[in-house]
């Protein structure tokens, strides 16, 4: 068994289920273990037995790709707490916008579902993510939704978890060390570069708009740093032009809407990469890992034996594939061979691939991969 500085499920969960994967080379066929695999079997499947990791906690910030239930507690918000979401998790929706979670594992709980007593004793991490949120406060407003933007998520970490949990440590030094070894996972900006940008009038140039987003992102990362966070895993933005939503509503002559991918997403990802390098040198003692989610999706589109890379598995209430899943309408049967479960969110199979490459594949992580970051 792996020697871990925390309950093993925390390290195994790692970022959406990160619990799974060693690097595949492009061209491999995606093989997903059973969704009901137990903890011991999963560790053997991942060959994690000899890896030593000191990871006290995982703190998650972001949007619907990592929200595991916070929006369930917000009125008029985007939710995934009904079938067919969770259909492969014993038919029990949890609030995650996909078809399954692995059986037998406990995930960092959503902050809005925790009591004050829970916040004082939960040392393994908390989830602050909110579906349809982003870096900018405008996210969600265009669809009249009540969501937690990144600023508000950091507020919750500072004003609830940080204050409540500190009292459970014997002294300030031990609490500071605990935070410095924990991983702060940031998956955000897709909504800023998607619906928010498209509904903003008048529009800034892509360069000016992406600069503003990155500046706002840094402000919140600085806040977390001042609160003793030191290890950051930051995702770039995937090729949104390949989402079923964009494919079904926009004109395109290739398999994806390249206009979406090649303009502001490309600009944002390049600026983010350059900025993370600068921020690490600016914030003494910090460690930033950039996960190239864009490349991971590109590789899947190129190969991996996936049968369908750009069609939503579930239908919306109009029988199309441009809105979230209609409630209690059966999704496709071949869910293990799909990249997308709904028009916006990856299937659980894609999460497996995503997480496996993140753990060990330095071609999609820089300057080091996640395992190396957790061991540092």
From TrEMBL:
<keyword id="KW-0964">Secreted</keyword>
<keyword id="KW-0442">Lipid degradation</keyword>
<dbReference type="InterPro" id="IPR001087">
    <property type="entry name" value="GDSL"/>
</dbReference>
<dbReference type="GO" id="GO:0016788">
    <property type="term" value="F:hydrolase activity, acting on ester bonds"/>
</dbReference>
<dbReference type="GO" id="GO:0016042">
    <property type="term" value="P:lipid catabolic process"/>
</dbReference>
<dbReference type="Pfam" id="PF00657">
    <property type="entry name" value="Lipase_GDSL"/>
</dbReference>
<keyword id="KW-0378">Hydrolase</keyword>
<dbReference type="InterPro" id="IPR036514">
    <property type="entry name" value="SGNH_hydro_sf"/>
</dbReference>
<keyword id="KW-0443">Lipid metabolism</keyword>
<keyword id="KW-0732">Signal</keyword>
<dbReference type="GO" id="GO:0005576">
    <property type="term" value="C:extracellular region"/>
</dbReference>
<dbReference type="InterPro" id="IPR051238">
    <property type="entry name" value="GDSL_esterase/lipase"/>
</dbReference>
<protein>
    <submittedName>
        <fullName>LOW QUALITY PROTEIN: GDSL esterase/lipase 7-like</fullName>
    </submittedName>
</protein>
<comment type="similarity">
    <text>Belongs to the 'GDSL' lipolytic enzyme family.</text>
</comment>
<feature type="signal peptide">
    <location>
        <begin position="1"/>
        <end position="27"/>
    </location>
</feature>
């Amino acid at each position: 068994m792996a020697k871990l500085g925390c309950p093993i499920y925390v390290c195994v969960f790692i970022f959406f289920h990160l619990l799974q994967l060693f690097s595949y080379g492009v061209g491999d066929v995606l093989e997903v273990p059973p969704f009901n695999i137990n903890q011991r079997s999963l560790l053997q499947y991942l060959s994690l037995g000899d890896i030593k990791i000191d990871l006290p906690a995982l703190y998650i910030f972001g949007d619907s790709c990592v929200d595991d239930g916070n929006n369930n507690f917000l009125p008029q918000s985007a939710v995934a707490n009904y079938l067919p979401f969770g259909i492969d998790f014993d038919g029990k929706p949890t609030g995650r916008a996909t078809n399954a979670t692995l059986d037998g594992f406990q995930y960092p709980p959503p902050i809005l579902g925790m009591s004050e007593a829970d916040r004082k004793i939960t040392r393994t991490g908390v989830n602050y993510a909110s579906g349809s949120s982003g870096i900018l406060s405008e996210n969600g407003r265009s669809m009249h939704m009540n969501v937690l933007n990144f600023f508000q998520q950091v507020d919750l970490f500072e004003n609830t978890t940080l204050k409540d949990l500190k009292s459970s440590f014997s002294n300030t030094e031990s609490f500071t060390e605990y935070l410095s070894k924990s991983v702060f996972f940031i998956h955000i900006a897709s909504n800023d570069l998607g619906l928010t940008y498209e509904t903003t009038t008048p529009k800034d140039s892509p360069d000016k708009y992406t600069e503003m987003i990155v500046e706002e992102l840094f402000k919140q990362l600085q806040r977390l740093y001042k609160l003793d966070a030191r290890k950051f895993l930051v995702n770039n933005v995937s090729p949104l032009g390949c989402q079923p939503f964009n494919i079904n509503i926009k004109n395109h002559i290739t398999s994806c809407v390249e206009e979406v991918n090649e303009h502001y997403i490309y600009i944002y990802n390049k600026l983010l990469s350059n900025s993370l390098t600068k921020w690490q040198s600016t914030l003494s003692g910090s460690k930033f890992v950039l996960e190239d989610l864009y490349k991971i999706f590109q590789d899947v589109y190129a190969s991996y034996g996936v049968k369908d890379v750009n069609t939503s598995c579930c239908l919306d209430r109009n029988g199309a594939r441009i809105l979230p899943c209609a409630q209690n309408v059966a999704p496709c049967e071949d869910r293990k061979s799909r990249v997308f479960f709904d028009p916006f969110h990856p299937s659980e199979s894609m999460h497996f691939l995503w997480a496996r490459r993140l753990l060990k594949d330095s071609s999609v992580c820089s300057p080091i991969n996640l395992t190396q970051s957790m061991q540092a």
